[in-house]
Design the sequence.
């Protein structure tokens, strides 16, 4: 995308003659400069990870988190302009809250993605605004349990409700990615930011396929996520970074349906493995080169 | 707005429905109930509407549809409960359209409760919400006067309900067959109609299951024995 | 000039006759104040060495009608505190949702908590609001609502730990009145349960000497007396023990060791012996 707007890029509300909105395309450029973010949806949860680029040695380690909790069961990570991302999260929290206020239930991940997609799209329509300079990855776990109404008292029949359709499963892990245009899809694995190409190539190698039947476990996904962020960082080697990761499991998993930061011990273990895997690869390559030398 | 001050909630808690009415307002004296059973829920009601001792309508339908398989039983002021049900019906149809899936009974109960709670000093509405949906099966929620929300395996309401607390508690069984549940509702409402002057007329029921909504009607002149429609 | 502000701008009585105020509303001042409809009765709680024991029965009354018998009036906040509700159930549900939203606000802040007392909670590392903070918050909330002439018709007990990890027990009522004490009870419990609890924990020092078993025993005794003497009570109740390990909540307990057999010796009401 190297074309120049020739006047059609001065405002949102103007299409170019060949049907493009240049402002949106420029916003995508802003995303492509940001640290890599990824999301993995596996059978028993969702993992979010981000390559947090350290812009100054004066910043406190581990502070200024990039992954945010939107509701108990929902997390968001994004690549691109950080203030835009912060505003995105504020709005997502408002949406989640207003859903709770009306329906007295947690917002399903799909509905949050839909509302936020609509919100971002609205920023591509008007002269007075610019599009969001972020691509956001929304991860969530919709409860697989029977949830009542927030604050309800009393119980139904002790034998359980009658007339349920047997054998059907509900809830589970969900992952969406929303782009500056407002476009969003549901994904098995999602990546955005500077290292997205490398990250996507790695994600495609994972077994994330059929619904809920992927062989990857949540803990494995955490380790893969760490490794993928390290792989993706290769393109950005001159800058320091911190790995930030969060996860969401079902009610019987480690986070009990809550979106939480991955515990320090597990994150460090995942990082150790990620570094080792990169070193092994380097060694292999060196070996190959050595072989060549010998020939 | 003037309320009567003859009712004493702390003494009997029963006739408060009458005293909360505005002057000259039509009252659903009423016996209403909803029960869960093996395949879903059943709603039941008498058909008497009174203004004072005069029966303004003897064939009232107090069972109101707010979505395909989510219905409510109305007691208290006819005007208030109709207005509330209309709002909820609108909200639920909007929900179904915007979210592309039918609302659950919880959704309906939430919207009902919000209206009843935030307008508690203006409304006299005692509602029972009963619904069936694919995920949660049959469920019953009760929203009494103050606007609190109670999940129950069965609920009774209205002035006639006070006469059948004993009957219902003794005869209630969870997970009944449809025929037994219909019979339970019918026998309970027969007692309520018998002892409560503000309840009477026909017995209406709606059975909500995976197959949809099925109406029953029983008439007093055949001792509520024969099912019409 | 008439110096009374009430008379300013009004036609003079001596010229036009007395002012006719009949078109003004005659029903007195506008009131947003409601009264409770579906209500819960007492909540009782006592501090002990490592925490607080709190209990409330499972009844929601409708006047004298025992209408709902499975209403849980102890609500857990952030897995670290318990709020016990007496009074209106619809307002209790409003407060419960409000506290739920407050807990979500807390989880926005992902900084792990410096305090280790949250280790047992599913929100591990999230909540920083302890019971003492919650008490202040609820007092402000209740007082504000009473100033809006739209009070939340409840009496609350807050059980948990303070910032120092010491047991915390406090109350707030519908006017925003706040207390802390080694033992507390709302409603009928203030008259019937407090004297019993004060016998065991007259001072903070005495409460700090109580064991968990003793504290649970005292609370169970109070629930029994309340069931004997409170006509709006039930023999099924919820009881929670709050410590730094978290909250242990049991919601369907049955009152045990009741004493009724002595009724056999009671014959007539005075001189009668058969």
Sequence:
């Amino acid at each position: 995308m190297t074309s120049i707007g020739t006047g059609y890029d001065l405002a949102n509300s103007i299409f170019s003659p060949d049907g493009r909105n240049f402002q949106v395309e420029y916003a995508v450029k802003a995303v492509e400069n940001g640290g890599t973010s990824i999301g993995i949806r596996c059978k028993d949860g969702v993992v979010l990870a981000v390559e947090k680029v350290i812009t100054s040695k004066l910043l406190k380690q581990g502070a200024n988190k990039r992954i945010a909790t939107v509701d108990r069961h929902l997390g968001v990570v994004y690549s691109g302009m950080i203030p835009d991302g912060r505003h995105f999260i504020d709005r997502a929290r408002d949406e989640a809250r207003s859903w709770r206020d009306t329906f007295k239930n947690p917002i399903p991940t799909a509905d949050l993605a839909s509302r936020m997609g609509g919100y971002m799209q609205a920023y591509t329509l008007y002269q007075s605004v610019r599009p969001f300079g972020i691509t956001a990855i929304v991860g969530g776990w919709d409860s697989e349990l029977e949830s009542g109404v927030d604050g309800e008292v009393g119980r139904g029949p002790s034998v359980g409700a009658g007339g349920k359709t047997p054998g059907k499963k509900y809830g589970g892990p969900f992952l969406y990615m929303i782009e500056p245009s407002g476009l969003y899809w549901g994904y098995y694995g999602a990546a955005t930011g500077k290292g997205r190409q490398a990250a996507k190539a790695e994600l495609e190698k994972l077994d994330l396929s059929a619904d809920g039947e992927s062989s990857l476990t949540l803990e494995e996904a955490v380790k893969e996520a760490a490794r993928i962020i390290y792989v993706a960082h290769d393109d950005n080697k001159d800058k320091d970074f911190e790995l930030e990761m969060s996860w969401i499991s079902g009610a019987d998993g480690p986070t009990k349906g809550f979106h939480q930061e991955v515990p320090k011990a597990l994150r460090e273990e995942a990082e150790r493995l990620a570094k080792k895997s990169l070193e092994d690869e380097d060694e292999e390559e060196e070996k190959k080169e050595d072989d060549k030398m010998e020939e | 707005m003037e309320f009567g001050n003859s009712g004493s909630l702390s003494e009997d808690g029963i006739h408060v429905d009458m005293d909360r009415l505005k002057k000259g307002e039509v009252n659903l004296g009423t016996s209403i109930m909803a029960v869960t059973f093996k395949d879903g829920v059943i709603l039941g009601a008498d058909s008497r509407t009174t203004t004072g001792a005069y029966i303004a309508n003897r064939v009232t339908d107090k069972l109101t549809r707010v979505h395909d398989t989510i219905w409510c039983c109305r007691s208290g002021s006819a005007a208030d409960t109709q207005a509330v049900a209309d709002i909820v019906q609108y909200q639920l149809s909007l929900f179904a359209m915007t979210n592309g899936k039918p609302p659950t009974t919880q959704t309906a109960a939430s919207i009902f409760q919000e209206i009843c709670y935030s307008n508690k000093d203006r409304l006299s509405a005692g509602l029972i919400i009963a619904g069936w949906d694919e995920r949660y099966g049959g469920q019953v929620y009760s929203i009494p006067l103050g606007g609190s929300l109670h999940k129950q395996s069965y609920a009774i309401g209205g002035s006639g309900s006070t006469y059948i607390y004993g009957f219902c508690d003794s005869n209630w069984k969870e997970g009944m067959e449809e025929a037994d549940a219909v019979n339970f509702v019918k026998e309970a409402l027969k007692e309520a109609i018998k002892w409560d002057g503000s309840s009477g007329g026909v017995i209406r029921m709606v059975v909500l299951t995976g197959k949809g909504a099925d109406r029953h009607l029983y008439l007093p002149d055949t001792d509520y024995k024969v099912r019409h429609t | 000039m008439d110096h009374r502000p009430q008379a300013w701008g009004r036609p003079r009585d001596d010229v036009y006759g007395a002012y006719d105020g009949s078109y003004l509303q005659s029903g007195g001042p506008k009131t947003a104040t409601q009264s409770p409809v579906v209500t819960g009765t007492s909540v009782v709680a006592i501090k002990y060495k490592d925490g607080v024991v709190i209990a409330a029965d499972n009844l929601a009354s409708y006047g004298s009608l025992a209408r709902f018998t499975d209403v849980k009036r102890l609500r857990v906040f952030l897995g670290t505190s318990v709020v016990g509700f007496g009074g209106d159930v619809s307002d209790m549900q409003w407060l419960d949702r409000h506290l739920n939203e407050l807990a979500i606000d807390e989880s926005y802040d992902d900084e792990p908590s410096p305090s280790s007392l949250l280790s047992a909670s599913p929100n591990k590392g999230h909540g920083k609001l302890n019971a003492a903070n919650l008490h202040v918050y609820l007092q402000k909330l209740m007082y504000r609502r009473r100033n809006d002439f739209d009070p939340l018709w409840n009496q609350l007990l807050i059980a948990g730990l303070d910032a120092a990890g010491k047991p915390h027990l406090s109350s707030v009522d519908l006017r925003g009145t706040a207390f802390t004490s080694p033992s507390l009870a709302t409603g009928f419990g203030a008259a019937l349960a407090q004297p019993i609890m004060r016998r065991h924990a007259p001072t903070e020092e005495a409460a700090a000497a109580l064991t968990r078993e003793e504290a649970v025993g005292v609370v169970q005794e109070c629930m029994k007396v309340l069931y004997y003497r409170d006509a709006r009570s039930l023999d099924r109740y919820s009881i929670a023990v709050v410590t730094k390990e978290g909250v242990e909540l049991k919601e369907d307990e049955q009152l045990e060791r009741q004493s009724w057999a002595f009724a056999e010796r009671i014959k007539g009401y005075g001189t009668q012996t058969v």
